[in-house]
């Protein structure tokens, strides 16, 4: 009798444990966390995110231990070739056939906006790290994505404001002709005009463009004090190089690069870029925590990380922490948890995820060093001021996002 | 100030000059394509990659071997030309008897391999090549500041185009080339080594592309994708000019540079598409191209 009781009791106990285990497991769909990394792996934006970003994501997964609550983390990637169609189709396929839990990377703003629509339709989740358009968490916001590293709003706030305050009042805008360029141009126009400056001319160039000589000539002809570059990546590099060939700076005009990445400055060299003011979300050499992580990254990749690559690590790690804490990979559960936690790591200072999906954190106004000041291949920026998180980004009171009650 | 359609004359003239300089690049590249297509009937999709290799040979030559720009102007085309001859001798020749499509696919594949390999080592940000010292600075021309180097590019490119045209149309060697492609068997019977001639022609065609690459190195960032960006435009130029027409390729190249330059002033959003619009118009009205012979 005791024997039967004992057996019965232990069977029930085993059954109960098993049942509990399956309940916990059921919260993480398929018993696996699947992260798809979508980025430009071969085109003009490759070096700012690309394979380096994928490596940063892998570092985050490894540092997390490779699994969450016993569920292994699987990472796969694809090249969006800067095409909105390719990006949206890839993500649709990931959702349909691979049950992707989180889409990371996301570079060109046009691709991102297309992808976030797919994410919303299918109630999946995405973390945007590399795109710039502030519209991604404004008119294009969805409950299914968040935006981590930076956007055009603080870029304009930081750089344009600093330049106007230094006396650069008349501007000529050189704008990349797509979502990101338009957003940046709009934000810059607002900041320049609010500070008493004026936009006296602009030209929208196709994306991407190799030859900027014609546009630089038009900018020279305009007589503006400042030539604002509302473009990114190779376009900015080409524009700055062309400007130096045409003696723009010698003739008394100044360039304002509104979105300049570390790899751009590295590619152009300090001779061509010294003195350039820029706004960045992070810099590898800004303090000990940042340096320590960057040195680990450097050992794996052989280059110093851009703010985007660091942001991919940071956002992935926070995502995994949220999955671990909630025991779920449901997009809304995870997002709510991420919003409830302050975000502070080697990347984000005073970080907070808002209801529009914008992760606001401290931004920095930097100046590119001169060749004499620089002490090494990657010693490129001097951080001038910190733009506090609360002032850097578009205030929620001005938001057009459908998730914000105004 | 005199205005032309709402644009100051000075700006207008400046844009024309810049358009002409870009046109010189189109001319050099489409010339190489036209020579190869005209004489070998190969649609050389590796042409952009050869242009890119010319620029990379210049950059790496300076970085690792200390070769200066002027030496690179000769050595880089030689190196890429040799590479092209190897490609012709060992790859293209094997498929010479098949449909043109196979040549197109083979050269396209080669271009992807060259590009992909270099992307792996150098990324896509591109490296800067310094403007040669003798050509730094520029002239104040009255209507614009013209960098000396761009003026040099214009002169050098047009000179090379003219020499090429002269060799093919006006010399004995050129006559052999043209005859060899019309009727290889007959030429062979006359004791001319036609396969060698074909190899040399392909080498020469890609050397022209590499020459353009050397000229481009100080102007644009040297990056593995620089060729593929340009190639499609250059193909459009060749189609507009007429496949296989040497003089047509040069004149169309310069003309398209001008049209593109003006578009950049009046409607910059269309600067990347205007050449294709012209191409569609030409295909509709004169399918053989502006300078092509009706088939």
From TrEMBL, chain A:
Domain of life according to the entry: Bacteria
One Pfam family it belongs to: Peripla_BP_6
SUPFAM superfamilies: Periplasmic binding protein-like I (SSF53822)
Domain Leucine-binding protein: from-to ranges: 32-369
Keywords: Signal
Transmembrane region(s): none
Annotated InterPro entries: BCAA_transport, Leu-bd, Peripla_BP_I
Signal sequence, start to end: 1-26
PANTHER family in the cross-refs: LEUCINE-SPECIFIC-BINDING PROTEIN, PERIPLASMIC BINDING PROTEIN OF ABC TRANSPORTER FOR NATURAL AMINO ACIDS
Similarity section: Belongs to the leucine-binding protein family.
Name of this protein: ABC transporter substrate-binding protein
Organism, scientific name: Billgrantia kenyensis
Organism placement in taxonomy: Bacteria, Pseudomonadati, Pseudomonadota, Gammaproteobacteria, Oceanospirillales
Automatic annotation (TrEMBL), chain B:
Predominant location category: membrane
GO biological process: amino acid transport
Residues that span the membrane, as ranges: 12-37, 72-92, 104-129, 149-168, 189-218, 230-254, 266-285
Membrane topology: Multi-pass membrane protein
GO cellular component, one term: plasma membrane
Xref: InterPro entries: ABC_transp_permease, BCAA_transport_permease
Classification via Pfam families: BPD_transp_2
Molecular function per GO: transmembrane transporter activity
Compartments in which it is found: Cell inner membrane
UniProt entry keywords in alphabetical sequence: Amino-acid transport, Cell membrane, Membrane, Transmembrane, Transmembrane helix, Transport
Record has Iron as a keyword: no
Taxonomy, superkingdom: Bacteria
Family in the record: Belongs to the binding-protein-dependent transport system permease family. LivHM subfamily.
Protein name (record): Branched-chain amino acid ABC transporter permease
């Amino acid at each position: 009798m005791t024997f039967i009781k004992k057996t019965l009791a232990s069977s029930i106990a085993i059954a109960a444990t098993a049942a509990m285990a399956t309940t916990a497991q059921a919260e993480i769909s398929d018993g696996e966390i699947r992260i798809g990394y979508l980025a430009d792996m071969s085109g003009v934006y490759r070096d700012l995110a690309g394979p380096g970003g994928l490596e940063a994501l892998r570092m985050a997964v490894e540092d997390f231990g490779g699994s969450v609550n016993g569920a292994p983390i699987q990472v796969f990637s694809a090249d969006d070739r800067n095409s909105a169609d390719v990006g949206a189709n890839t993500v649709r396929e990931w959702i349909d056939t691979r049950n992707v839990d989180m889409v990371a990377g996301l570079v060109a703003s046009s691709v991102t906006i297309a992808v976030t629509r797919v994410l919303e339709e299918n109630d999946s989740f995405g973390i945007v790290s590399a795109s710039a358009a502030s519209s991604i968490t404004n008119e294009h916001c969805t409950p299914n994505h968040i935006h981590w590293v930076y956007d055009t709003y603080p870029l304009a706030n930081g750089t344009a404001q600093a330049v106007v305050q230094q006396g650069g009042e008349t501007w000529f805008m050189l704008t990349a002709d797509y979502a990101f360029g338009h957003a940046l141009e709009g934000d810059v126009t607002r900041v320049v005009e609010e500070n008493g400056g004026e936009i006296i001319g602009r030209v929208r160039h196709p994306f991407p463009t190799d030859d900027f000589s014609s546009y630089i000539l038009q900018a020279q002809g305009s007589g503006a004090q400042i030539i604002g570059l509302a473009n990114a990546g190779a376009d900015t590099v080409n524009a700055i190089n062309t400007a130096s060939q045409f003696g723009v700076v010698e003739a008394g005009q100044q360039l304002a690069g509104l979105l300049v990445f570390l790899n751009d400055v590295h590619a152009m060299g300090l001779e061509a870029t010294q003195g350039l003011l820029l706004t960045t979300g992070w810099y590898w050499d800004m303090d000990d925590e940042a340096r320590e992580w960057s040195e680990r990254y450097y050992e794996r990749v052989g280059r110093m990380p851009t703010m985007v690559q660091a942001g991919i690590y940071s956002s992935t790690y926070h995502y995994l922490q949220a999955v671990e804490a909630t025991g779920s990979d449901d997009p809304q559960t995870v997002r709510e948890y991420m919003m409830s936690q302050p975000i502070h790591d080697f990347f984000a200072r005073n970080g907070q995820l808002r209801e529009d999906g914008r992760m606001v954190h401290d931004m920095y106004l930097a100046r590119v060093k001169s060749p004499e000041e620089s002490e090494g291949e990657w010693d490129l920026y001097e951080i001038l001021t910190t733009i506090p998180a609360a002032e850097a980004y578009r205030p929620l009171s001005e938001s057009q996002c459908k998730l914000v009650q105004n | 100030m005199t205005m032309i359609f709402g644009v100051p004359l000075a700006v207008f003239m400046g844009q024309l000059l810049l358009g002409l300089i870009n046109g010189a690049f189109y001319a050099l590249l489409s010339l190489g394509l036209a020579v190869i297509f005209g004489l070998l009937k190969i649609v050389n999709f590796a042409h952009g990659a050869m242009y890119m290799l010319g620029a990379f040979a210049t950059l790496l030559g300076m970085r690792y071997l200390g070769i200066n720009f002027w030496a690179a102007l000769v050595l880089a085309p030689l190196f890429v030309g040799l590479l092209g001859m190897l490609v012709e001798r060992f790859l293209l020749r094997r498929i010479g008897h098949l449909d043109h499509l196979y040549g197109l696919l083979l050269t396209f594949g080669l271009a992807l391999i060259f590009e992909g390999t270099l992307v792996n080592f150098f990324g896509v940000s591109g490296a800067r090549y310094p403007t040669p010292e003798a050509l730094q600075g520029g002239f104040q021309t009255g209507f614009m500041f013209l960098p000396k180097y761009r003026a040099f590019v214009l002169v050098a490119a047009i000179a090379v185009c003219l020499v090429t045209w002269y060799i093919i149309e006006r010399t004995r060697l050129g006559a052999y080339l043209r005859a060899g492609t019309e009727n290889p068997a007959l030429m062979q019977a006359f004791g001319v080594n036609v396969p060698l001639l074909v190899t040399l022609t392909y080498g020469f065609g890609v050397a022209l592309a590499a020459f353009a690459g050397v000229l481009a190195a100080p102007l644009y960032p040297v990056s593995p994708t620089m060729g593929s960006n340009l190639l499609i435009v250059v193909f459009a130029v060749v189609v507009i000019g007429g496949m296989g027409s040497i003089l047509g390729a040069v004149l169309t190249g310069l003309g398209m540079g001008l049209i593109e330059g003006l578009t950049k002033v009046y409607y910059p959003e269309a600067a990347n598409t205007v050449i294709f619009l012209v191409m569609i118009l030409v295909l509709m009205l004169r399918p053989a191209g502006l300078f092509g012979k009706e088939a």
